[in-house]
Amino acid sequence: MLPEFNIDGNLPEGIYTIGAEEFFNSFSTGSGRRKWLGRQLHELFRLVKLTGKVERVFVWGSFISAKESPNDVDLLLLMNVDFQLEEVSEECKCLFNYGEARVRFNADIFWAKSSIDNEILKLWLDTYQNTKDFKRRGIVEVKLL
Amino acid sequence: MIQNDEQLLKAQQSIINLQKVLLELRKVHSKQEYRAISEPILLEIQQREQDILEYLSKTKAEVS
Q1: Is residue A3 part of a domain?
Q2: With an 8 Å Cβ cutoff, are B24 and A116 in contact?
Q3: Element (H, E) at A24
Q4: A–B: how many Cβ contacts below 8 A?
Q5: CATH classification at residue A27
Q6: A78 partner at 20 to 30 Å CA-CA among A51, A67, A109, B35?
Q7: Tally of domains in chain A
Q8: Interface pTM, i.e. ipTM
Q9: Between chains, do A130 and B20 touch, taking CB under 8 Å as contact?
Q10: Residue A4 resides in a domain
């Protein structure tokens, strides 16, 4: 269950784990822009699952804020240790090409293998808990499986 | 946009953090993977560096 947005319209600082259904019910309803971004994310998540190698998915930024019309979606995909970029199917390759994913899904997709040091992962996620105006905000981890 | 010295320090720290992330990513990914992974992070560092330069280019009067 997600907490209420804070006075700045962001989730309070922290990492909140929710299922895909709650994620879409919470963030891809309301404005036409949110519904449209939600449809892009449905397709994006379908491809992520199709890789068969995803372990964790984190989302942050305006899409998970109270903003009526978010610009885009920011994601971090954490892939299995045995994930190999060169073995990704043609259909899923767009996920791992920053420019292509940006155009196709209106999403900034960051990704890494789960073998990265856990402290560095924490540092990475902590850095994205800062807004552009230097306030703290929450991140959502979406359980796809 | 950076508006004061405290925010400048936070922006500098976020760049250091992202550089640490890049160094770790380089250790555990292939050359091809690292090129793909590093692109958005490098863009982000570049944007934050630009914000810092813009703040530092202002006079004291313009900042306050």
Answers
A1: no
A2: yes
A3: helix A20-27
A4: 52
A5: 3.30.460
A6: A67
A7: 1
A8: 0.91
A9: no
A10: no
